Amino acid sequence: MSAAAAAAHKDREFLAVIGDEDSVTGLLLAGVGHVTPAPDSQKNFLVVDAKTETADIEAAFQRFTTERKDIGILLINQHVAERIRHRVDTYTAAFPAVLEIPSKEHPYDPEKDSVLRRVRRLFGE
Q1: Distance from C-alpha of 108 to C-alpha of 123, rounded to nearest angstrom
Q2: What domains are there in the chain, each with its CATH number?
Q3: Which InterPro entries is this protein grouped with (predicted)?
Q4: Is 71 helix (H, G, I), strand (E, B) or coil?
Q5: Handedness of CA 32, 23, 73, 80 (dihedral sign)
Q6: Rounded distance, CA 43 to CA 40, Å?
Q7: Number of Cβ atoms within 10 Å of the Cβ of 87
């Protein structure tokens, strides 16, 4: 690994989560929760429900993938990713890695997963 590649992810020590209440709660109970120090106190998670605006989901995705340099992996429920599919599909940076995960109410569909679709294109499938 080159020095530049090592430096690109050296400080990325946290997971971020965008998902439904059950998914986020489970991951917080597993210990992934983090809040930055005051005065801005940013959380590394967003709970999405039926009332959550798509703009709020996009803002959280932007914050976790671009603005915060301490996030190494972003987990997002696949049904939430569908609401901002254009953003997820056009995201190409290596860090943070964006992984789509299932939820209790919505099963995982590999046909919708942006990472798997990219891998299939790479292998010519």
Answers
A1: 22
A2: 3-122 (3.40.50.10580)
A3: ATPase_V1-cplx_f_g_su, ATPase_V1-cplx_fsu_euk, ATPase_V1_fsu_sf
A4: strand
A5: negative
A6: 10
A7: 17
* Pair 71, 44: CB distance under 8 Å: yes
Q: Is 32 helix (H, G, I), strand (E, B) or coil?
A: coil
C-alpha distance from residue 16 to each of 41, 59, 117, 124 (Å): 14, 13, 22, 32
Nearest-angstrom CA–CA distance, 19 and 7: 29
Amino acid at 79: H
Confidence grade of residue 122 (pLDDT, cut at 50, 70, 90): confident
113 contact partners, CB below 8 Å, separation of at least 6: 78, 100
DSSP state of 95: S
Summarised one tens digit per residue, pLDDT across range 17-36 is 999 999 999 999 999 999 98
